[in-house]
Q: What sequence folds into this?
C-alpha cells in the first residue's frame, strides 16, 4: 500500500485517478482548490479512511499533516478545458509554475515519485504528424492558448530540472484529449458540448469547418496508462492517448447518431491557435509499458452520454 498525493484530484481526470488508487488499496490525499474540480466528483470517496480531501490552491501552499509519509505525488492540478484556462489565464500560469514547484519540493522532501500530468498542448499546432515525444512542438508563446501550453512546457522543464539537479524520481505523461463520465455539461470541451447540445435538441457547435482532428481517449484507458507510468521507472515524457484520429465534424455526426438527436450542426469561428491535427504516436507507451487504449469511440461516447443525460436534464 502506498500513500499518494493527487493534486487536482477532484477534477475530471484526477477523480478517476483517485478512484483507481483507492480501489487497489492505496491511500490518497486529494489536494484541490475546487475552482474547476468539484466535491461531487469525490463525494463517494469521502467515507473511506484511506481518502482525504484537502481544499486549497497548490500555487499558494502545499501543507500536509507532518506525520503523513508520501510515496508518490501526482500533479494534475490545472484548468484543462480551453474556456476554463482562458477564463483563468494567470491562475493557469501560476499552477503550472509555482504549483508544480511546490509539489516537486514535496516529492523531494519525501523521496517520493513525481508524476507530471503534461499535455499534447506542448506540441502546440504540430507540424509533425503523428506526434512523437521527440518532437519539440510549435507553440506561439504570446498567443491566448500559451497560458496553458507554456505553463505545461515550463512544468516539464521544472520537473526535469528537479530530476537532474535534485535527484527527484520523476515521470512525465503527455495526456491527449480524454473524455468520459465527470466531464461537466458546461465544461466547454468538445465531447461534453456535443453530447449536451444533442440531448437538449440544440445545434451542435462545430468550430471552423470541422476538418480539424483530435484523437479521443476514454478516461478508463487514460487512467490505466497514467498508473502504468507511475508504477514504472520510466522518466519520459511519454504520450498517453488514443491514436484513433477523427475529424471534429465526424465526431459531431457520431454523437448525433448515438443520441438519436435531430439537432442541426452549426459552424462557428475557429478559436485562435486551435491545432489543426493532433494524434499521438504511442509506440513508447506500448513498448515500454505494454499499454494501449481498448475502449472504442462509440462505446465511450455511449458511456459518457449515460453519465451526462440526467445532469443535462437537471441543468
Ligand atoms: N470544438 C468544437 N465545438 C465545441 C468545442 C470544441 O468544434 O463546441 C473543437 C475545438 O475547436 C477543437 C476540438 O473541438 O478543434 C477540441 O476542442 P476541445 O476544447 O475539446 O479540446 P482542445 O483539443 O482544443 O484542447
A:
Amino acid at each position: 500500500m502506498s500513500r499518494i498525493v493527487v493534486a487536482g484530484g477532484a477534477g475530471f481526470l484526477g477523480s478517476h485517478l483517485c478512484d483507481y488508487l483507492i480501489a487497489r488499496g492505496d491511500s490518497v490525499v486529494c489536494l484541490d482548490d475546487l475552482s474547476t474540480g468539484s466535491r461531487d466528483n469525490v463525494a463517494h470517496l469521502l467515507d473511506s479512511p484511506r481518502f482525504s480531501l484537502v481544499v486549497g490552491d497548490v500555487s499558494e501552499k502545499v501543507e500536509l499533516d507532518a506525520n503523513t509519509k508520501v510515496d508518490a505525488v501526482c500533479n494534475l492540478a490545472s484548468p484543462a478545458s480551453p474556456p476554463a484556462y482562458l477564463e483563468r489565464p494567470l491562475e493557469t500560469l501560476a499552477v503550472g509554475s509555482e504549483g508544480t514547484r511546490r509539489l516537486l519540493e514535496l516529492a523531494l522532501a519525501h523521496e517520493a515519485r513525481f508524476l507530471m500530468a503534461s499535455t499534447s498542448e506542448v506540441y502546440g499546432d504540430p507540424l509533425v504528424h503523428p506526434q512523437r515525444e521527440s518532437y519539440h512542438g510549435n507553440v506561439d508563446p504570446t498567443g491566448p492558448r500559451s497560458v496553458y501550453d507554456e505553463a505545461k512546457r515550463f512544468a516539464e522543464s521544472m520537473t526535469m530540472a528537479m530530476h537532474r539537479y535534485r535527484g527527484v524520481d520523476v515521470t512525465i505523461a503527455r495526456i491527449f484529449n480524454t473524455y468520459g463520465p465527470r466531464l461537466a455539461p458546461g465544461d466547454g470541451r468538445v465531447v461534453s458540448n456535443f453530447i449536451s447540445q444533442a440531448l437538449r435538441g440544440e445545434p451542435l457547435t462545430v468550430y471552423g469547418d470541422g476538418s480539424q482532428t483530435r484523437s479521443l481517449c476514454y478516461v478508463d484507458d487514460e487512467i490505466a496508462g497514467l498508473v502504468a507510468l507511475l508504477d514504472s521507472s520510466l522518466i519520459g515524457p511519454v504520450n498517453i492517448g488514443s491514436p484513433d484520429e477523427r475529424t471534429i465534424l465526424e465526431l459531431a455526426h457520431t454523437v448525433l447518431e448515438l443520441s438519436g438527436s435531430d439537432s442541426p450542426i452549426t459552424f462557428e469561428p475557429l478559436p485562435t491557435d486551435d491545432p489543426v491535427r493532433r494524434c499521438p504516436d504511442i509506440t513508447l507507451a506500448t513498448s515500454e509499458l505494454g499499454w494501449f487504449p481498448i475502449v472504442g469511440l462509440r462505446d465511450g461516447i455511449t458511456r459518457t452520454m449515460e453519465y451526462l443525460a440526467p445532469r443535462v436534464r437537471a441543468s
